[in-house]
Amino acid sequence: MNNPTLKIQIAGVELKNPVMTASGTFGSGKEYSEFVDLNKLGAVIVKGVSSTAWKGNPSPRIAETYGGMLNAVGLQNPGVDVFIKEDIPFLRQYDTKIIVNVSGKTIQEYCEVAEKLSHADVDLVELNISCPNVKEGGITFGTNTAMVEQVVKEVKRYCKQPLIVKLSPNVTDITEIAKAAVSAGADALSLINTLLGMAIDIHKRKPILGNGMGGLSGPAIKPVAVRMVYQVAKAVEVPLIGMGGIMNGEDAIEFILAGATGVAVGTANFTNPTATIDVLQGIENYMQRYGIGDINTIRGNLR
Ligand SMILES: Cc1cc2nc3c(=O)[nH]c(=O)nc-3n(C[C@H](O)[C@H](O)[C@H](O)COP(=O)(O)O)c2cc1C
């Protein structure tokens, strides 16, 4: 088959293909650019950026688990001003879309970052209201419909780019949160962030992570993520970016069949630095195998 179409649209922004990097697992692309041709990616979703520098959580920040990992990095970053000055010019050298992930401890902090980014050369903004690793803000915004509406509505006032809201899986009914985000103005949703977890060192009788608890990611969470994408795709009309344990093209196709427009690769980058490119190749192979001419035709298309 000649040149299958991989192009997708997220809130009016065209991506050359559905493959993106999951926030916090690919930095701003610099570290990976010697392994991955960033021109090949649909978008780079960068690490979380806050209004001022955050130093993150005490170590250890990472623990391996069966089929995944726990992290409690705590959104360490140099702050939005440094990010705009150093990372955007780097990424703009490449023919890929830039999606900036925004963190905050208060609504005001989220708004400050959105306002600064509104003058910067970025394509989309992704609002992280779902991080389990910070004491204030983060997940507390993402698990309560009233808070979701409030933070999304406020940020939307400052944001010039289309706004993606990133949902937490640590809720009973993900569709209620998704509907609240969309009714407050989210142009797209991404899901899922990590699942709150914990691991204990039985010899020291202490939690392994310095922070006590952390976020579980990797293949272990994929069935939960696919289920949530499936449910949310039926509940709202906006495009979805699906993520959670995507290791190869077949995993990505599962998310697209569940209803995702785009996919993001996270934890897989740590074990395989070229995971994003392998996922893209795997999607192309699947399209070839089943004679699919346009990736958009299989979205949510379960028999
Ligand atoms: C080390 C690490 C750091 C992360 N940092 C962020 C972040 O800054 N902002 C965010 O929205 N999600 C963050 N995430 C969540 C991922 O973007 C993704 O939603 C989650 O890990 C599920 O995908 P995966 O199983 O492919 O990793 C982080 C995940 C990991 C493992």
CATH topology, what is it called? TIM Barrel
Q: Trace the largest sheet across and list its strands.
A: 3-4-7-8-9-10-15-16
CATH class: Alpha Beta
Strand fraction: 15-25%
- Poorly predicted runs: none
Helix/strand/pairing class, anyone? Answer: alpha/beta
Order of helices and strands: EEEEEEHEHEHHEHEEEEEHEHEHH
Alpha carbon gap, first and last residue:
23 Å
Characterize the overall form: globular
CATH superfamily: Aldolase class I
In short:
The chain has 303 residues and is α/β, with parallel strands linked by helices. The chain contains nine helices and 16 strands.
What can you tell me about this protein's structure?
The chain has 303 residues and is an alpha/beta fold. The protein is built from 9 helices and 16 strands. The chain has a single domain (8-49, 76-128, 146-166, 173-191, 217-298), classed as TIM Barrel (Alpha-Beta Barrel). Helix content is 32%, strand content 20%. The strands form 4 sheets. An 8-stranded parallel barrel has the order 3-4-7-8-9-10-15-16, surrounded by 6 helices. Strands 5-6-14-11 form a 4-stranded antiparallel β-sheet, with no helix packed on it. The longest helix is centred in the C-terminal third of the chain and has 15 residues, at 275-289. The protein is globular. The protein starts with 7 loop residues before the first strand and ends in a 14-residue tail after the last helix. Residues 22-25, 47-48, 71, 73, 75, 101, 128, 131, 166, 193-194, 217-218, 221, 243-246, 265-268 line the site of flavin mononucleotide.
